[in-house]
Amino acid sequence: QVQLVESGGGLVQAGGSLRLSCAASGSIFSSFDMSWYRQAPGKQRELVATITNSGSTNYGDSVKGRFTISRDNAKNTAYLQMNKLKPEDTAVYYCNADYRPQFSTITYYYWGQGTQVTVSS
């Protein structure tokens, strides 16, 4: 069983920055596609950013140019650098790992417990 532990959330003023971390257990982290999602009160969970196991990245339209996703396979950790934060970025941020074993048609999904990010105006 893979465990994901997020850290780095907190309260920041608009225009500020935060860096979220997602530490994964196990020895197959380099095979995971890693993503960050967020969910604001009363809203659906939305994809913020993804980095594949080969290093390709993809971002939600609302964060392009402000957020950067990265990973360090040696540390089993994914990161989300958030700059120029806005009040509308306020949400619980969740780390997600997707893993499909070689030659398998099954994809395994793992989630962290979430970390709160609050941006004050």
Task: Name the features.
121 residues; 7-stranded mixed β-sheet; 11 strands
Tell me what the structure shows.
The protein has strands at residues 4-7, 10-13, 18-24, 33-39, 46-51, 57-59, 67-72, 77-82, 91-99, 108-111, 115-120. With 121 residues, the chain is mainly beta. The strands form two sheets. Strands 2, 4, 5, 6, 9, 10 and 11 form a seven-stranded mixed sheet that branches. A four-stranded antiparallel sheet has the order 1-3-8-7, with no helix packed on it. Strand 9 (91-99) and strand 10 (108-111) form a beta hairpin. The N and C termini lie far apart (40 Å).
Summarize the entry for a quick read.
The chain has 121 residues and is mostly beta strands. 0% of the residues lie in helices and 51% in strands.
Number of DSSP helical runs: 0
Enumerate the spans where pLDDT stays under 50 for 5 or more consecutive residues: none
Shape: elongated
Helix content: under 10%
What integer is the average pLDDT?
96
Category by helix and strand content: mainly beta
Strand content: over 45%
Number of strands: 11
Q: Span from first to last CA?
A: 40 Å
> The biggest beta sheet, please?
7 strands, mixed
What string gives the helices and strands in order?
EEEEEEEEEEE
What is the rounded Rg? 14 Å
